[in-house]
Amino acid sequence: MKKIYKANNINCESCKNLIKASLEDEFGTIEVDLTKTPKEITLEINSNEEENKLKEEMKDLGFDILD
Q1: pLDDT of 60 strictly over 90
Q2: 53 Cβ partners below 8 Å, 6+ apart?
Q3: Which of 10, 15, 5 is nearest to 54 (CA)?
Q4: Closest by CA position to 17, among listed 1, 31, 3
Q5: Which residues contact 34 (CB under 8 A, 6 or more apart)?
Q6: pLDDT higher than 90, residue 67
Q7: CB 34 within 8 A of CB 10
Q8: What is the pLDDT of residues 6-57, one digit of tens each?
Q9: How many CB atoms lie within 10 A of CB 53?
Q10: Which domains does the chain have, with CATH numbers?
């Protein structure tokens, strides 16, 4: 199911590129909307385990997913 997550600390095109380069191999296509505040990422998530892994990996990259 396609889900939208709001995230902190995504500030520029370089942040967007880091997220896409680091996570698209594992999670598939990721859209990052830099026009929203807080910024939004959109991707296919199919289970709670996948969602938890995304949140953990985003945190490792320095970006917090907001609940």
Answers
A1: yes
A2: 26
A3: 5
A4: 31
A5: 10, 12, 13, 16
A6: no
A7: yes
A8: 999 999 999 999 999 999 999 999 999 999 999 999 999 999 999 999 999 9
A9: 15
A10: 2-61 (3.30.70)
Q: Is the sign of the CA dihedral 46, 51, 52, 54 positive or negative?
A: positive
Sign of CA dihedral 12, 13, 16, 22: negative
> So what's the pLDDT on residue 34?
97
Q: Quick check: 1 and 61 in contact, CB under 8 A?
A: no
Q: State yes or no: cis peptide before 38, omega within 30 of 0.
A: yes
CA angle 11, 49, 58 (to 5 degrees): 15
